[in-house]
Amino acid sequence: MIAVLRFALLLIFTVSVSAQAPIEVDFVGTAANHQLSWTTTVNYNYQVFMSPDLENWVDTGIAEPGVDDPITGSTITYGLMSLEEKLFYRIRETVDPYNGGFLVLPTQDQEVDLIDGVCFAFNLDVFTALPAKIRIYKRDYDSGDPWEQIGQITDFDEIDGIKFVRGSAVWLPDAEGEYEVQAAVVDGTGTVIASAVRRVIVGSNQAPAITITSGPTTPSASSQPAVFTATATDADGDEVRRVEFYDNGVLIGADTTPDETSLSVFEFGDDIKDIEGNFYDLLKGTHDITAKAIDSRGAVGETASASQFVITGGNARPTITVSSPTSGLIVTQGQSFTVVYTEGDPDGSSDIDEVEGYDILTNDGDFDTTSPFDDLTIDTTGWAAGTHTIRVVTRDLSDDESYPLYLTVFVRTGSGATFAETLVANIVDEATAAPSNEEFTGTQASSDEFLTGVDSGLEINAGVALTTGDFLDWNAGDNTEGISTLWNSAGDQELEDRVAGNNTNDAAVLEFDVFCANGQLEMEYQFGSDEYDEFVFDTAQSGCYNDAFMLTIDSKVVSLVPDCSDIVAVNSVHPLIPANISCTDEDLAAVNDHLYLDDDLDIDPKVAPANQTVQVEYDGMTIRLRIHAFVTPNTSHRIKLVIADVEDAAWDSALFIKEGSIRSITPTPQNHENV
User: Fold this and answer.
1) N or C: which end of the chain has fewer CB within 10 A?
2) Rg (CA), the chain
3) What is the Cα–Cα distance from 642 to 387, expressed in whole angstroms?
């Protein structure tokens, strides 16, 4: 809406980008000494720009909020002086872009890391009705380049008087730099309301620094426990979640339970163990010990140099290397595969007594007890479909083992499409996103395709369920407060580094590449858990069971709650928890309760009496949520979906992914200058 006033050679025009009537601007004075005045409206913000040519616009620095009289408003008057022969003015009226505005995040001059992306959060309560859509734009900071629309959101809801976006919206820049972003709401009448322009500074997550500060006695004439102290610091203030220790380049264990000695300073070393919980001694030889520190956003820092420890007496540890297969081998049930290895022993090859490789879940495998020691044949007959971990070690005559090597083998059923390919084909809209390189990690019986979800109380009717327990229990009729299947399988390190908890178990992981011709990638889902509501805990404390899932795109987390504060998990979406229930000592305030469904209060009433026996099992769930990820188009991106039990392997959880909902779209183009 444009009103034009001309005075001598001075042209003034105003633009309203709100639901208000056009701004009426008064102009008085001379071209060299003039005033602009207009009437403001409460809850709106006014910015003045000027240009000599209608192309190059400069912010005058005038930015004023509307005053507190919602009926009459108030007149703002600015005196301006100019020696220019002509000037153009543009006054932009927007919803207050700061605390009272609809664009909550990112804030002005917010610094984010490239590894995290830029999360958008909105306050829709400033509007009388839900928007029809929100458009999101970006451009390089202070470039004057045209705005690029990177995304569009159309999924909104209002529950308990709270208006919100049904899910997360995350932009994944492909380079560091300074950017300008802006959001524009379109209401039901087509009126556009623009936020203020926000500058966002995208940098790198700094890796933690780590130093080994102490270790066993050196030199020593006898073996010593492999216990070291390492101090890690993180300049970003991130939590250091894990430190790994290496002996001559071989991983010998990790510590995930640090002591925070001061702000962002962590001490490790009192609980170094491998994936089976084994602790090791340093045996005869020279040990160059190095360490890596991993922070809560995945940045890895390494020791600058090795710390050397020398054991001069006793027996030396034998060694083993595997040349084939590489970790990640896929075999069909009943098929045998060969592990080709090379063993060694500093005390002499005649000291080798045995080489063995076996599945740590079934204890099935093979062993060599006579020379030549060169390969093992492992038969998968009778193995359950899913991921298996093969432990390969050599043992000497003193019964000392090499540091074990671990190989991941996925056992699939039958021939044709793999299990992972079948799952991915169900949830990806291949008309808009082309998947490849599909992989599933976990126990195959934990996950599968589901139907009749609405009859069972879900808001999604069909798709794929990834669970931490038995897939068949997903609609078991809500007949237990804590349904559990303990697969005793591995967790997922990437999720473990991001979730509130020390370890994960029984992970189900689905990964694949997807080529997106378009720049917006979406997915619809529900997350449910039997940890609700007995095992919700205060995140300011430690302990308890925060089961969680995570979707990453190119290792960037996009499965966030709508306010961007956390990943979707038991502790980030839950109701008011009564006092003295399991993990709590006092009442816990509800967190994102409008996103939560209770099995008895919300789900059960929706399930017909005839379907009560197949009601969804989990005692609490999220509503249907949608992920919006704004990615680089015409590029292949790596998708990872993971769900796991946290702390223990009991009380299962599930992620329900809507069929065909992983898709790429092109937002309806809109010229930003019309915003």
Assistant:
1) N
2) 30
3) 14
